[in-house]
Amino acid sequence: MNPDLDALKPYPFEKLAALKAGVTPPAELEHVPLTIGEPQHAPFAGALKTLHEHQLDFARYPATAGMPELRQVIADWATRRFGLAGLDSECQVLPVNGTREAIFAFVQAAIDRTHPTRIAVPNPFYQIYEGATLLAGGQPLYLDCRAETGFRPDFDSVPAETWREVQIVFLCSPGNPTGAVTPLDDFKKLIALADQHDFIIASDECYSELYLDESAPSPGLLEACAALGRHDYRRCLVFHSLSKRSNLPGLRSGFVAGDAGLIAPFKRYRTYHGCAMSLPLQHASITAWNDEAHVRTNRDAYREKFAAVTEILAPVMAFPAPEASFYLWPSVPGGDDEAFTRALFAEEHVSVLPGSYMGRKINGENPGAGRIRLALVAELEPTVTAAHRIRRFIERRA
Ligand SMILES: Cc1ncc(COP(=O)(O)O)c(C=O)c1O
Question: Which CATH number fits the domain that encloses residue 372?
Fold first, then answer.
């Protein structure tokens, strides 16, 4: 077997299961998991109806490029959402089966193995960036995201000789696990660096629609390109998804958009990879990208939860004010995220994810250590119940 498989790190949830092994939580308290980023809000019914109506299309093979109608709907959506001059649905858009597989596959397709290969990833981060890098024979370049830099990578800290080896920079905005949003100026700055050092920017924007201020949608990489008059989106790709936007993580539907010079070889790679999206899913996706009302309802629900949980937890934990995504990223009293997680589960039957499981120790320090990730994905009532239990757990130990 491929020896690079041995380089893969255990997934955070495997580590969490090991941490909780042997612990018996109080049976009288119902378990509230705040761990997995799987939305528990109702899936968008319109998309499911369309899926049902097109079920006989499961009898046909889909094309890798997806249906022209789907590509057009996606191009129109992204153009509206990010104020673009336009996106060519023929060559600048590709439907994918969710961002996870697309992120992984893009790295395999893009890396030039004839040169030393580094891929920059935020630290802490979504583990697929790292796994994709390792399996493509590259080395991750971990860029710490700490409170001092607004939980965003500090690109100025990377020396020019390191940039020379970097082939791809991953951004995650809004960020998992920190919830940090990349401002338009940071995108622009990174685009300038990409031109200077010849790398690709891969911007994972799968949480882009979960912003809390209805008047301030989180900006995106293509939006920065448009603001710079870079209408060919050179060196830039964005990854979007219906998983969080429409509460359809099981549909496996998203898209990649941007530089046609990157999309064409990626499409070629995908032809061999054999991962075309089935036709009923494509029809359902058209319905979902065409509807904003259900996304506003979704944001309303997250806004209500963030407000309620912030009121309960802010007096006992410090965390950045959430702007977007469905995560809270508090530091834990005492500073030991693993011990906190284990004891909280043991005493209150609430599961959270230790922040250190999502980061890597670079220069002696893991920027996720001392924090936990709370995914506010459940409905309001269990989420508030969990917040109250976390608060009483902290107060009991104070
Ligand atoms: C940062 C980030 N990127 C990508 C994904 C994958 O999402 P999907 O493949 O459902 O689009 C997730 C899922 O939790 C995520 O947190």
Answer: 3.90.1150.10
100 lines ligand 1 (CB under 6 A): yes
| Residue 123 backbone phi and psi in degrees, to 5 | -135, 115
User: Is there a single domain that holds both residue 14 and residue 109?
Assistant: no
* Distance from residue 269's CA to the centre of ligand 1 (Å): 21
Strand (E) or helix (H) holding 236? strand 236-241
- Tell me how far CA of residue 198 lies from CA of 117, 164, 233, 258, 346, in angstroms: 12, 8, 14, 16, 50
Print the domain residue range for 313. 3-42+294-397
Whether the CB of 98 sits within 6 Å of ligand 1: yes
Indicate whether residue 95 lines ligand 1 (CB < 6 A).
no
pLDDT range class, residue 322, cuts 50, 70, 90: confident
Above 90 in pLDDT, residue 343? yes
Residue 206 Cα to ligand 1 middle (Å)? 6
The residue from 258, 291, 324 where one domain ends is 291
- pLDDT tens track for 24-44: 999 999 999 999 989 999 999
